[in-house]
Write a structure and sequence with these properties.
Blueprint: E1 17-19, E2 30-35, H1 45-59, E3 68-71, H2 75-87, E4 91-96, H3 101-109, E5 113-117, H4 126-143, E6 146-147, H5 157-171, E7 177-181, H6 186-196, E8 203-209, E9 244-248, H7 250-264, H8 270-286, E10 291-296, H9 304-315
Parallel strand pairs: 2-10, 3-4, 3-6, 4-5, 7-8, 7-10, 8-9
Antiparallel strand pairs: 1-2
Helix pairs in contact: 1-2, 1-5, 2-3, 5-6, 7-8
Length: 317
């Protein structure tokens, strides 16, 4: 008899892996998508939020009665809000009007206190990221809260090592390439380490916004792909862990998110769109016998207002 989950946190992980059927490269290579929207908040960030909080509990950084603070574009904040709600920790989240309103509302509904940092016209920039980080530092110091500090926190890597194990088992080791967009770089790094630990010739491709392609030597700029492209080289990034870096524009990512919904029935956010654009490029290079895995980072339900505005604008040019 299967053991019943003790709480919603036991439902994190063990997500499905499916093949794209219609959005495929012309040479017929297989692209598999890891459905992280199956996690409780609809995002892969549930994995890292739980890992960071449990590690802090284990090492004494977060004690009973303590509180938590983090800066986030939204998904990490929602995931931390879930974990903190279940475990009983008050949570302060530093975020911005640059990110989807649905995510901000979700955090509030889960009990988080939000601190909004104004953006430059709703766009993600290096300055915004650093302003949010500084505000989180100030709150943590003033309140004595545990600061998860996702840009530097290595405890989250263990969550992505486990995700790599899932991918390996689900593919039976038949994986030639892995593609993932870079926010904190933790998911790409952790999954790459896990997969390369099993086979060192798997091609690892990072994805970043074309408008702010700092990892591949470009200038810092503004973009609207939620959750990725901090605008500077983040601390957890390691150039040696990737074989290539793909630049994908906000427009390309948004268009692919719409295609995934209409052609595959997969309603995802723009970071997932960017992942699939880059996975198609890699699949073309690797050829018809290849298998490429990428990630459906979250559900498109987190972006209904953003997507709806885009549809309305296109309907009324």
């Amino acid at each position: 008899m299967t053991a019943q989950p003790r709480s919603i946190l036991d439902r994190i992980g063990s997500t499905s892996l499916i093949a794209l059927r219609h959005i495929v490269p012309s040479n017929g290579a297989c692209i598999l998508l890891k459905l992280e929207n199956e996690n409780p908040t609809g995002s892969m960030k549930d994995r890292m939020a739980l890992a960071m909080i449990e590690a802090a509990e284990a090492d004494g950084g977060l004690k009973p009665g303590g509180s938590v603070v983090e800066y986030t574009g939204g998904s990490t904040g929602v995931s931390l809000a879930l974990v903190c709600a279940v475990k009983g920790y008050p949570l302060d989240v530093v975020t911005s009007d640059a990110f989807a309103q649905e995510k901000l509302d979700h955090m509030r509904l889960l009990g988080a206190t939000l601190h909004i940092v104004e953006s430059d016209g709703g766009r993600m920039t290096e300055k915004l990221t650093k302003d949010m980080i500084e505000q989180a530092r100030i709150i943590a110091e003033a309140k004595g809260s545990f600061w998860t500090d996702q840009m530097k926190n290595r405890d989250q890597l263990a969550a992505y090592h486990r995700m790599a194990d899932e991918i390996w088992e689900q593919t039976g080791g038949r994986i030639d390439g892995f593609v993932q967009s870079v926010g904190t770089a933790a998911s790409l790094r952790g999954i790459a380490e896990g997969l390369r630990g099993r086979r060192d010739d798997i091609r690892i491709v990072a994805v970043e916004p074309a408008e702010s392609a700092v990892l591949s030597g470009g200038l810092s700029g503004a973009h609207k792909i939620d959750g990725i492209g901090a605008g500077y080289v983040v601390p957890l990034w390691q150039p040696a862990m990737t074989d290539a870096i793909e630049r994908v524009s906000t427009e390309e990512a948004m268009a692919m998110a719409f295609r995934l919904a209409r052609e595959e029935g997969l309603f995802a956010g723009t970071s997932t769109g960017a992942n699939v654009v880059a996975a198609l490029r890699l699949a073309e290079r690797l050829g018809p016998e290849a298998t490429v895995v990428t990630v459906m980072c979250d559900t498109g339900m987190k972006y209904l207002k953003t997507f709806g505005a885009r549809l309305a604008a296109n309907a009324h040019p």
